[in-house]
Design brief:
It is a single chain. This protein is mainly α. It has one domain.
Amino acid sequence: MPLRRVLYRVLWPAVLVLPLWVLLGRAFFGVPLGLQFVGQVFLVPLLVVGQAVAAGLVVGRRSVREGRAVSWLDAGLLLLTWVAQLALGFFLVDGPGSGPSSSAFTAVAGADRLDLSTALFALSAVLTVVSVVGLVVAGGWQFLQEARRRVAASLADLERVATGGARPPAAGTPGLGGDGPVITITPRRDG
């Protein structure tokens, strides 16, 4: 439960921080930002939108908001997405036009590891796309399942009331009589 609560708390900050890491992460390792930066300026906003949609679907569920914790499925997909994005920023090969291409990984491991960095970048790019799409699909599915249960419960309550078989309200249920005294006014009939 603590892990799921932590993921809930960092969900929205990660929507902005991780794409910024993908965009600028190489600069922290002394690697110049080259031509890849121009393409990323257009692609990183798509990553932000995808993550924002996924986060909205996760937080849109009442069970997540009330428990202040994501589901285990959300937790697994969020961790996969975030690790893939961290790897994406670390292995992205970029070069300043005429100089040798490099990445944060080659700055740490050596320039002879350029092919490995390129392969790991491709793997992390695929993982990022697949995990964000999976997060949106899983979030939407869980959202619809929870909404379906709530609508079915509301319709069942409405049907019980309509047929005259009203059930007694649960104690502490707001709006159903369990939240305090109820004042009933009956009109006087003269005549």
